[in-house]
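A further point concerns the way the authors explain their paired sequence and structure data. Each protein is reduced to its one-letter sequence and a matching series of backbone shape codes. An entry of this sort, consisting of the sequence and the corresponding backbone structure tokens, reads as follows:
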Amino acid sequence: MSVRDVSPPSADGAAAGAASTDRGLLRRRHPGEHHRVDFVELFFDLVFVFAVTQISHSLIEHLSLPGAIQTALLTVAVWWVWIYTTWVTNWLDPAKLPVRLALLALILPGLILSSSIPQAFGARGAAFAGAYVAMQVGRTAFFIWAVKGHPSMVRNFQRIVVWLLAGAFWMAGAFVDPLTRLAVWAVALGLEFISPSVGFWVPGLGCSTTADWQVEGGHMAERCGLFMIIALGESLLVTGATFADMTWTAATLAAFVVALVGSLAMWWLYFDTSAEVGTRTISRSADPGRIARLVYTYIHLPLVAGVILSAVGDELVLGHPLGHADAVTVTTVLGGSAIFLVGNALFRWAILRRLPWPHLVGIAALGVLTLTAFRMPPLAVMTTGATVLLAIAAWDAKDRRRAADGEFLP
């Protein structure tokens, strides 16, 4: 079986000419196969299990509009660190000692970043910003060193380093008051967020195209699926831990079961169809970099955010299943489900080039429910939201059966 280097096509013949300087840290690709997720990648992900838990707990402790905005910014920052690292390990081989050590070295600042989340807009702003910048810049600098002998890849990551100068805003924001910090950090994250969409354009260095980012699609899809498992697992953890510490009544038991059903429905909606079709599409694509950027870098963010917000809603309902639902409960329960459905619908649209109408109906139904939810008990609100998710998952399962019979092509 032939083997080819992971160097992008735009590298011309430079890879051959620079063979003597190649550090040999890139993965080798075999046609028809995708990279195995290495155990060190999974170990690194444990940091983000902690980070996702911290995010949900931080939102629970700051249930206000400013708290929600702050938590949203921290969620994007955590995702951005993780997805950038995933891009790097798509090219670099974690089985090679220098790459493995680099991933392990990122765990310390990752734990500092995660530990700082609840007080990121308080006393631990500098710790959060410092850890974030250290991970982003340090990982990118290592990659430039690791791909010596591959000029196109070096040039691409030199552009990224320039955009990561937004780290100056992160550090500056750490030493001002919380409101100003939010604004400064929003600028920093905004610069990083738009940079892939403009090809990391830098005067004098030009910009990248998606053809320059020849990722191995199966590995990218699997890694993002594993992060979805992290988010869903955190939802189960929150639900189980909250239920374990409560007095068990008929209402709390019902809330526990409904919360589980909602998580199962989200799992089904993502993994039964979306994940499989996404993996197949990016693996066969002539331009996997475009799909990796749009679908797996940007569109997965609302999927993850929806799961985290729903976990917060589950905890609130478990604590107070009866009475009248307040605005916070309605927003987290129905809003979390709606954001997840928006993300999943965008996922299907980006892959299949059509919007799934059951998702659109479900999003509209959740919107209508918010108008009457304030007159309902929290348990009823969560039950209704879970029913919407379950109905869409059932429709997806029906489409899958039709696809198996040749009646429908997902």
In short: Residues 1-19, 406-410 have pLDDT under 50 and may be disordered. The radius of gyration is 22 Å. The chain is about 70% helix and 0% strand. The longest helix spans residues 250-284.
